[in-house]
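Z., the sequence and structure:
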Amino acid sequence: MIAKGIALPFIALWGLGIPAAVFALMRKDKNTLDTPQTKAKFGFLYNGYKRHNYFWEIIIMYRKIFCIMIAVFL
């Protein structure tokens, strides 16, 4: 029981916090997505999408996280 109380906040922080932080950083740099510096940092996340859909990989990450959480916790 103690392990679950310790593990759940860290799972939430890791699983939900990291994609949120990446989204916040990408949103801050959304006007410079075509520069080499931004492409070096985040290009692997938005290269396959149109410029105005740069955030779509984050949505896919959350969908996968929620599917895994449902499978594990239910």
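Residues 2-28 form the longest helix (27 residues). The chain has a mean pLDDT of 89.

Let me know what you think.
H.
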